[in-house]
Each structure stands twice: as structure tokens, then as C-alpha cells.
């Protein structure tokens, strides 16, 4: 079985892990009510998606 001959330095490990960070969710405002929310989801405030009512909300 192959075994590393030397330890990888902290710098080398850090370079490898540089892309493992978390990214923030993309938010966009609803065209009808203007509340920010994640893209490609039904609006939690008015219940619309792609200009159509998907969920009936009490107003």
C-alpha cells in the first residue's frame, strides 16, 4: 500500500481547501410583492412563482 513519504505542509493543505468554503444563497426580489427570497422557489409572502399563483395565501 502506498504511504506518503513526507507530511503535506499547512500551506499546501490550505491551497487544496481554498474552494471548500460556503457561499451565500442567491436572493432576488419577488416581482409582485418585492420581498427577497431564494431563486426558483415559490414566494413565501404572496405564493406566486413565474407569474402564477401556486399557493393561496390569506391576505
TrEMBL record:
Record keyword Ribosomal protein present: yes
InterPro entries on file: Ribosomal_bL32, Ribosomal_bL32_bact, Ribosomal_zn-bd
Biased composition (Basic residues): 1-19
UniProtKB keywords: Ribonucleoprotein, Ribosomal protein
SUPFAM superfamilies attached to this UniProt entry: Zn-binding ribosomal proteins
Region of interest: Disordered: 1-28
Keyword Transferase: no
Molecular-function annotations in GO: structural constituent of ribosome
GO terms for biological process, alphabetical: translation
GO cellular component: large ribosomal subunit
NCBIfam families in alphabetical order: rpmF_bact
Family the entry assigns: Belongs to the bacterial ribosomal protein bL32 family.
Protein name: Large ribosomal subunit protein bL32
Organism: Bythopirellula goksoeyrii
Amino acid at each position: 500500500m502506498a504511504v506518503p513519504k513526507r507530511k503535506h505542509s499547512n500551506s499546501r493543505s490550505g491551497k487544496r481547501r481554498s474552494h471548500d468554503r460556503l457561499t451565500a444563497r442567491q436572493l432576488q426580489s419577488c416581482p409582485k410583492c418585492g420581498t427577497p427570497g431564494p431563486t426558483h422557489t415559490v414566494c413565501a409572502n404572496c405564493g406566486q412563482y413565474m407569474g402564477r399563483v401556486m399557493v393561496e395565501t390569506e391576505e
